[in-house]
Write a structure and sequence with these properties.
The chain is mainly α. It contains 2 helices and no strands.
């Protein structure tokens, strides 16, 4: 199975920034300082409901 993903230049740039942060080649602070602003989201922790 093959498929194609299309991305805008802005989305592609954002992906590259996230990859650099993941690879520890860039910190979130550095990304913010250089104008490579990314939106951080709180991690979602799924827990079972207590009765």
């Amino acid at each position: 199975m093959s498929f194609m993903i299309t991305m805008s230049q802005k989305e592609l740039h954002r992906l590259e920034v996230v990859q650099k942060i993941r690879d520890r080649r860039l910190s979130v602070v550095q990304a913010g300082r250089t104008g490579m602003v990314i939106r951080l989201q709180q991690p979602v922790h799924l827990t079972s409901a207590k009765a």
